[in-house]
Amino acid sequence: MTFQEQIQQGIPAELPQPKPYETQINHAPKRKEILNDQEKKLALKNALRYFEPKFHAELLPEFKKELEDYGRIYMYRFRPDYEMKARPISDYPGKSEQAKAIMLMIQNNLDYAVAQHPHELITYGGNGAVFQNWAQYLLTMKYLSEMHDEQTLVMYSGHPMGLFPSHKDAPRVVVTNGMVIPNYSKPDDWEKFNALGVSQYGQMTAGSYMYIGPQGIVHGTTITVLNAFRKINKNPKGGLFVTSGLGGMSGAQPKAGNIAGCITVCAEVNPKIAKIRHEQKWIDEIHENLDQLFERVKKAKENNETVSLAFLGNVVEVWEKFAEENLKIDIGSDQTSLHNPWAGGYYPVGQSFEESNKMMAENPELFKEKVQESLRKHAAAINRHTAKGTYFFDYGNAFLLEASRAGADVMAENPTLGREFKYPSYVQDIMGPMCFDYGFGPFRWVCTSGKPEDLKKTDDIACEILEEMKKNSPAEIQQQMADNIQWIKGAQENKLVVGSQARILYADAEGRMKIAEAFNMAIKKGEIGPVVLGRDHHDVSGTDSPYRETSNIYDGSRFTADMAIHNVIGDSFRGATWVSIHNGGGVGWGEVINGGFGMLLDGSEDADRRLKSMLFWDVNNGISRRSWARNEGAIFAIKRAMEAEPNLKVTLPNLVDEGLF
C-alpha cells in the first residue's frame, strides 16, 4: 500500500503482525500499577472497543500483557510501518488543505528526531502525549483524510469522537486533553484515568499538534538567560549557567546558553537523551566524571569560552561539588519534569537511572521518599550558592512547588501575596514584566512545503518587518524588538530546525499580524508554499498557571482560569484552523489550564481575514487581563492597542494611593 492508502484505511481490516519491542528507541518508563482487577478489565474492554469482535480473542492477551509490562495499553502492533515525519503538505490525501496541514503537524510531533518516546506517542515532558494508543492515531488520520471544510473533528483526550457538520469558518479540529472534574485532578487520578484509556496528559504543544522540537523553547530560554545576566549586570561571556534536563523541552538549555554566549553545565541522568542531544549538536561535550567536569569548567571560565557541557549524572552532585570547590555559579535553574515527579520526571540522587526506573514501578512509595529527600538536598545545595551571590530562578517546571512539598528550605522569610518562595519564577522576574505584559510571546510558523528555502524566505520577511517596526516602536519595547531581530538573523546559522521547517520568535499582536499578512501575500504570489501559524501555550493569554505564566499577576486572580477559557473560545469563532484546551501543561495536572491554536495560511482572502481577527484577540485578551491586575507594562500596552483599534474598549483599573491605607 502507498503512504496515502495506509492513511486512508485507518485501522486495518486485517490484523498486522505483532511488532518487536525496539530497545534502541527511547521508551517511556513503566507506569506504576494503579488499577484494581475490575479496573484492569475495564481498561481492556475500553481498548478492545476500537476493533471488530472477531479480533478480540487474539488481542486481549496481548493488550493484557502490555498493561502488565508497561502500565498502559499502547497497541504497539498497530504502529505504522511508514517513516514517521512531517511530509510536504501535497503528500497527504484528503479533501481539505486545512486537514492535511493538521496531519503534517501530528506526524511532526511523533517524528523520532522530535518525540521523546515516539513508540508511546509521547512528544515531551515524560508524559506529554499526542494520543493514548496507536488505534487513536490511525483513526484520527483517516478522519482527517476524509473531512471537508464544512466538518469539524472533535478530539477527546486523544480519542477521535468523530466528524461533525459545521461551516468553513469553524475550526477543523477541536482538541481537549485531561479536562477532568477539578476534584479528580491529582497525579494519581491522571495515572488511573490514563491507564483506563479515558484521559491523557497533552502537555502544552504535544496534544495540540504544535510542537516544533526544542527550538520552541530555545528562543524563550535564550531570552531568559540573556535577561538573567542583565539582572545581575554581568556579560554572559565567561559566565556560568548551571541547570538540569536534556529532554524534549529542557534539551534547549545548552543550545540557548551557546546563543547567549555563556558556559552552560546541564546534568542529565538518561544516557540515550544525552547522546541524542550531542548528535544533534545541541550540546558540545558530555562528561561523566565530576572532577573532570570541574576542571573543564574552570578552564572555560579562565578562557571566557562559550561552551555547553552535559554531565551524565544527577544535578544535585554538580551543585554540591561546585559548592565544595567554591566555584562561582552566576545563574542557575532546573528544568527536570517536576510536574511529573513520581513517574520519571525527576530522578533522585544516589540511585542509578536503571535502579530508579525499577523502584518507580515496583516500589512507588519508596521512590517518592527518595525523590523528596533528593529535592531537600538539591535546594540546600542551591541555597549555599545563592548565599554567595548566585541568581537562581524557577523555570516553571514546579521545582519550587515540589521542593516546598518535600519540606525543602525554599520558602520566603517574609512572604507576600504571589511571592511565597525564596526564589522567583522566571516569569515573575523576566518573561512576565518584560515580555508577556507588553504582548510579546512565542509566535511560530511551519512551512508545509518542507523546503528549507521557504523557511529562509519567511525568516527574511519576518526580519524585514521587525526592523521596520522597530524604527517607530516606543522605548518601552525597543529591547524586545532588538532581541528578536538578533534572534531571527542568527536562526539559520544556529541550525535550530529539528523535524519540520519551523521557526519561532517573540512578537506582539501587531508584529504577528504584519508577519502573517506578509506570509499570506507571499503564498498568494507563489513565492512560498502554505504556512501553518501557531504558538506555544506558554504565552500572553493562552495559559492560566499561578506558578508560571500568570505568576506575575498580583491581584489575587492568578488561581483563576477564565483567561485561558476565554482565549480558546475567542480563537474558535475568529478563524483558527484548530484549537485546544488542556489541563496540566508543564507544571502538573490540576495546576494549570492552557490553550492553543493552529492556523493555515493558504494565500486566500479568507486566510487574510481570519488572521487579522484571530491574532488580535489571541494576544490582547491576555494584555487586558494583565492590565486589570494593575501590571504597569500591560496598562501601557492595552492603551496603545486601543489607540490603534477603535473597536477595542477595555476596562482599565483605577490605581489606589498606598498612603490611604
Automatic annotation (TrEMBL):
Binds 1 NAD(+) per subunit. GO terms for molecular function: urocanate hydratase activity. Residues 84-210 form the Urocanase N-terminal domain. Residues 1-20 are annotated as: Disordered. Its EC number is 4.2.1.49. Keywords: Coiled coil, Cytoplasm, Histidine metabolism, Lyase, NAD. NAD(+) binds at G125, G126, Q203, E268, Y395, G586. Its cofactor is NAD(+). One of its GO terms (cellular component) is cytoplasm. Residues 283-310 form a coiled coil. The keyword Kinase does not apply. It holds the Pfam family Urocanase. It is an enzyme of class 4 (lyase). Pathway: Amino-acid degradation; L-histidine degradation into L-glutamate; N-formimidoyl-L-glutamate from L-histidine: step 2/3. It catalyses: 4-imidazolone-5-propanoate = trans-urocanate + H2O. GO terms for biological process: L-histidine catabolic process to glutamate and formamide; L-histidine catabolic process to glutamate and formate. Residues 213-430 form the Urocanase Rossmann-like domain. Residues 436-639 form the Urocanase C-terminal domain. Gene3D superfamilies: Urocanase like domains, Urocanase superfamily. Belongs to the urocanase family. Catalyzes the conversion of urocanate to 4-imidazolone-5-propionate. HAMAP family: HutU. This is Urocanate hydratase. The lineage of its organism: Bacteria, Pseudomonadati, Bacteroidota, Flavobacteriia, Flavobacteriales. The gene is hutU.
